[in-house]
Write a structure and sequence with these properties.
Blueprint (H helix, E strand, L loop, with lengths): L13 H6 L9 H9 L9 E5 L4 E10 L2 E12 L4 E4 L3 E4 L17 H8 L4 E2 L3 E7 L2 E8 L2 E8 L4
Antiparallel strand pairs: 1-2, 2-3, 3-9, 4-5, 6-7, 7-8, 8-9
């Protein structure tokens, strides 16, 4: 008889805390503390960092913070179970599903129609991606597979 490994659990506010790191420096002690709690390493260069066991990642890029260009949190990603993504330095990574509540009331695995009901009509839509720009400094991208939500990106807008 094999042992069943319990799913990873998280503080219900972690997703919102992670999204709150967007636009902040990776040197900020609060950013370091939240990323440590999430089990995600602090990047030293422009790249994505992840905790596949928790189904989360962030992208670190250089942008203006308090008048100078430095490495900061550009975007946060939440993945459904078995979703794959390429993480530089780790290669192709398969994620466990994010176990906590997501921002904006989103739920991994819910239908595209349910996501649209929560976020409104997308600004852009493609075969398996929908995009919203809820504020001048934010972009939301949802990825769907077989009509179900499998990845949520919340971050700075693309230039």
């Amino acid at each position: 008889m094999s042992k069943r490994v319990p799913p990873e659990t998280v503080d219900p506010g972690l997703a919102d805390e992670l999204v709150g790191l967007i636009d902040r420096s990776l040197k900020d002690p609060h950013v370091e503390a939240v990323l440590a709690r999430a089990g995600i390493p602090i990047g030293k260069k422009i790249e994505q960092q992840a905790n596949p066991a928790l189904g989360i990642a962030y992208m670190g890029t250089k942008f203006q913070i308090d008048g100078k260009k430095e490495l900061g949190v550009d975007a946060i990603y939440f993945f459904a179970a078995k979703q794959k993504s390429y993480i530089r330095g780790s290669g192709d990574v398969e994620f466990a599903g994010y176990p906590g509540p997501l921002p904006l009331g989103l739920v991994l695995g819910e239908s595209r129609a349910a996501v649209t009901k929560k976020l409104g009509k997308p600004a852009k839509t493609y075969e398996d991606h929908d995009y919203w720009s809820p504020a001048r400094n934010r972009r939301i991208a949802c990825t769907f597979a077989s009509g179900k939500l499998v990845e949520v990106y919340i971050g700075r807008p693309r230039d």
